[in-house]
Amino acid sequence: MLDALKFFLFVILLLVTIMLNQHVNSKRSAELDLGLLWSIQDAKGVYVVPNQTVPSGVYTALEQSMVIGSLLEEYNDVNTSWVGETDWTYRANLSCLAEDYRYVLLTFHGVDTFASVYLGEQLLGECENMFVRYRFDVRELCDGTTHELRLEFRSPVVEARKRSLDRKLPIVPVCPPDVYHGQCHVNLIRKMQASFAWDWGLSAPSMGIWKPVRLEYYSSALIRDVTVAISESGAMASDQWTVGVGVHLETGLASARINGMLTFKIIGVPLTDESQQTLAVTNATNAQGELLIEQQLTVRKDAVERWWPNGYGKQTLYSLYVRWEDAAVNGVKLPNPDTMIAEKVIRIGFRTVELSQELAADGLMFYFKVNEVPIFAKGSNWIPSSVLPERSYDANYVKFLLYAARDAHMNMLRVWGGGLYESDHFYRLADELGILIWHDLMFACSMYPTEPGFLRTVEEEVRQNVRRIQHHPSVAVWATNNENEVALRQNWYKTESNYSAYYAQYVELYVRTVQPLVQANDRWRTVLLSSPSNGDLSVKERYVALNPQDPHYGDVHYYNYFLDGWNAAQYRGGRFVSEYGFQSYPAYTSWPEARSYGPAEFGRLVNHRQHSPLGSVPILAMIDYNLPVPGDPASPGYWPELIYLSQLSQAMIVKIETEVYRARRLVHGTMGALYWQLNDVWIAPSWSSIEYGGTFKLLHVWLRDIFAPEHLIAFVNERRQLELVAVRDTLAPDDTLWDVEVRIHRYGSFRPVDRLRYEAVRVPPNTVAPVAEWDVYGHLAQRGLHPADHLILVSAYRHTTDQSTKQPEHQRQALAENFALLDKLKNIRTGQRLLPTVTVSVVAAVCSDRSNLTSVSLEVSVSVPALFVYLQLTPENSTLKQCQFSRNGFLQFQPVRTVQLTCVDPGCRNKIQARDITVRTVNELLVR
Within 10 Å of residue 840's Cβ, how many Cβ atoms? Predict the structure, then answer.
């Protein structure tokens, strides 16, 4: 009884520890956060910013002290470029006492990027990689005296330039395109590659202490990381899980012998063998003070629940607790026994993930199986949530973006290789939300050097970050780089004349260095060499495939700006489409400068922020292909109209392309659709579905339907047939029966002119089911109807054979709805070009003081059908944040429609009224 009580109290204390440490932080012997009272100044002492907290960055500090304006407004990306070309110094006073501790280490979890670290007059060491954790032994300096802790930062722009000199083989591209307004040679330094500008982002060559700084005190060993490999393999695979645990211990910065005990517990889950709970360790750490200890735990399958991706089941997580206790704790009476004890808790999930590349009739398949279930990957690509690294870990904003992905039925995000290894918070949320992570290593769109110093820091970067991240069940696959294989093969950067030299560098970096290191530190996952790539075929073709974009193998990135993106017939898809997309402009009200700029001045700003080398030509061309174009560019209404049409065009292109990929699951073996890109780093033309700050573009609102687990797809295929495909990503029940209705509508009438029904269509689980191909154009011709005057609306309903429960047709709740255009909207003929009277009424509004969320129920009434109704709050509601409409950009072929508006409203100060909402429709441009 007493033992049971002790165990109960132990569990309670452990749960408190878990909560306090947010599941991932070690409870170290002692740890002091050095976050407060830093000062920052430039090398000449002209600018001094006192009382700064870390994490920090120079741009952020200068903004807060009003030395510079916001980096994200007007032309400040260029006006503040001097900041990144200047050297800066961080200073703080530090007083510490080593006392009886054996180890006192000053640990920087992230320094961006080049800095000399001093304590007093003693140089502790140099930092050169923003992705690496740096540790310095300060025990001898912790004598109670106050020393100045100083980091002398060197400009990454200047440092990159120095590294480019006297190279026989230039590391290309040397500079980004001029339209980026960026800096050169970013591929020579280990810094976020997008810091020097990208086609979607501004240049912000940041510097600073972008992650926490801590003093670590202990006397035995520290648990730095815990890694896992969870499998069903072995003789007992049918009824148990094996959890291979790797405990990464540290003893300062030098080799030391340790003698003690490791304890392992999976909270709430009994191990099949109690002897696995403890492991005696008598060993020595290596020359860097590091030691890996491995232990196998086994649990019965009926004692745990599986972890599933979003839409396939629950995301059940378990806490794995690891404790180190030095043998001296029980051997003698110590004044401070806690200094010889270390603890760490991580959360794990029981699941299997396999990247399947089995032989197909026309190549190799490429898809993920989770818990033996094939998964169609639906999702997007993730870039850092801020261009400034110290802001990119904003927990609330990261949470908002990941919830937005989850709510749009995404089950996968690709962490893109030109950004960051994300925060622990990011991966915890991905675990909780069931969002699988395709994880690039941080190399993108470039060749890279391979001299020993560069490879040495890359090795440490890979080791540290893979060990930190790999225990998360959401991580599905690693890829060592983004687009570098295809760039080399297709001569993107004029490498052809020195192909063998660049090829040798490619193999040295990724094949001989990065990939083996990832595999050594994560035995749980596949490691791909690149994206896009031909997967296993690329390996057979000596790591650089003859055609890395072959749709019969691996993954592809597909962009085509010169064909009509509204035409479904142009899309084929590959096995897995890991990038595709189209640009649009952010909402007019999202631009901070919009109210003070005239049309011409506003246009210059938009063009300045348009970093695509093609400019806005693709956006304008696609509008011109399909839509009525706005009027005079000099008129005040030009830009609001153009922005609306750009978002509508982007939404249509990504919708049609995604739906073709989903529909071609059986025909082409397409099993993944990750559009480019989820989020943005500033207000600018880009491929994102969510603007910087959180406003949804039309695309993101539409994604709730595009990615819906049960969806009815309708498009005109290459044979000019209306193709109908039912899609189910759900696993149960085994089969469902759908009734599918096709309605032909005139653009000017609520009533359909014709109907077609398909009864009791059998739709199996986790696949697609062809419904029909219909010669709709032949049917229209027989009835004397013109395609330009009509569109198709389709609906799917649950089939029921029980007449007593069968609802009248007008009361049936559709499980899926969709539409298909039969001609370009700009070709609608005069008789169907009607201007609806649109009225928006506020039916109800409520705001929660606790959540600071205001929810408004709106009724949208139209006198005649309205095309792509676009609702937007007026600029006067700028204090409201992250406002989202439940529906937007919709076709309204019924007189009244209800829409919910939700906003973050701190203090519930705003009362939204009908006059606060503006409405646009395509009809307005058609009747002009």
Answer: 19
- Pure H helices in 264-392: 328-331, 389-392
pLDDT at residue 14 greater than cutoff 70: no
- Structure tokens belonging to residue 110: 């992230």
- Catalytic-residue membership of 710: no
Q: What is the pLDDT of residue 850?
A: 84
DSSP readout, 32-91? EE--S-EEEEETTSS-EEEEE-SS--HHHHHHHTTSS--TTSTTHHHHTHHHHTS-EEEE
Q: What's the token pair of residue 463? A: 């080791």
Give the pair of three-digit tokens for residue 286: 């290596």
From the list 343, 422, 483, 723, the catalytic residue is 483
Strands annotated E in 689-837: 710-716, 722-728, 736-746, 752-763, 767-774, 790-798, 816-821
Name the CATH architecture for the domain at 34-214.
Sandwich (2.60)
Q: How far apart are CA 577 and CA 671, in angstroms?
A: 8
Strands 201-203 and 196-198: antiparallel
Note whether 220-348 and 838-927 share their fold: yes
Cα(386)–Cα(423) distance, rounded to whole angstroms? 13
User: Averaged over 94-120, what is the pLDDT?
Assistant: 96
Q: How far apart are CA 152 and CA 413, in angstroms?
A: 37
Cα distance between residue 618 and residue 486, in whole Å: 23
pLDDT more than 70, % of the chain: 95
Count of CA atoms in the C-beta half-sphere (13 A) of 248: 18
Q: Which residues pair with 213 in a beta bridge?
A: 108
pTM: 0.95
Please check whether residue 341 is in contact with residue 325, taking contact to mean a CB–CB distance below 8 angstroms: yes
Q: C-alpha distances in angstroms, 480 versus 101, 138, 177, 426?
A: 40, 35, 24, 20
pLDDT at 767: 97
Q: How large is the average pLDDT for residues 295-306?
A: 97
Per DSSP, what are the bridge partners of residue 257? 284
CA distance 783 to 687: 41
- In three-state secondary structure terms, 557 is strand
Q: Which listed residue (343, 422, 461, 579) is catalytic?
A: 579
Buried b (16+ CB within 10 A) or exposed e, 234-251: eeeeeebbbbebbbbbbb
CA dihedral 377, 383, 384, 386 (to 10 degrees): -130
What does the pLDDT read at residue 807? 63
Place of tokens 């057979």: 540
The predicted-structure confidence for 478-532, as pLDDT tens digits, reads as follows: 999 999 999 999 999 999 999 999 999 999 999 999 999 999 999 999 999 999 9
Active site residue 579: yes
Amino acid at 893: F
Q: Where are the alpha helices (DSSP H) in 126-272?
A: 156-163
Count CB-CB contacts under 10 A for residue 497. Answer: 8
Superfamily of domain 725-832 in CATH is Immunoglobulins (2.60.40.10)
Worst-scoring range by mean pLDDT, 20-34, 215-229, 383-397, 863-877?
A: 20-34
Find out whether 245 and 322 touch, Cβ atoms under 8 Å.
yes
Q: What is the mean pLDDT of residues 758-768?
A: 97
Domain extent listing, the chain: 34-214, 220-348, 353-707, 725-832, 838-927
- With 0-12 / 13-18 / 19 or more C-beta atoms within 10 angstroms meaning exposed / middle / buried, residue 52 is buried
* pLDDT tens digits for range 616-657: 999 999 999 999 999 899 999 999 999 999 999 999 999 999
Nearest Cα to Cα of residue 871 among 818, 914, 925, 820: 914
CATH of domain 220-348: 2.60.40.10
Q: Which two tokens stand for residue 187?
A: 């591929």
Alpha-carbon gap, residue 701 to 714, rounded angstroms: 19
Rg (alpha carbons) of the chain, rounded to whole number: 29
CATH of domain 838-927: 2.60.40
- Judged by average pLDDT, the poorest of 176-180, 353-357, 711-715, 903-907 is 903-907
- Fold exhibited by the domain 353-707: TIM Barrel (3.20.20)
